[in-house]
Fold this sequence. Notes:
Blueprint: H1 2-8, H2 28-31, E1 33-40, E2 43-50, H3 65-69
Antiparallel strand pairs: 1-2
Amino acid sequence: MAAHASLYRTESRWGLYHLRTDYPEKNDEDWFCHTLLSKKDGKMSSEKRAVEPYIVPIADDEKDLYDKQRIRASA
Length: 75
């Protein structure tokens, strides 16, 4: 299930937890969502679900704090 979900999400996110060398960058435009896994007709299936608005507002200058903690390789 984890492998199926990782192959469905064509981006990297959450540091080394989900790193794809073929898609090394985070892609919020296409992948700021929940991915749902299910089994249909004996086969794994994935779909996207929108992230609901935050209950507690987050200041604009705090929204990218996680990304600022990531270690980036030098060019």
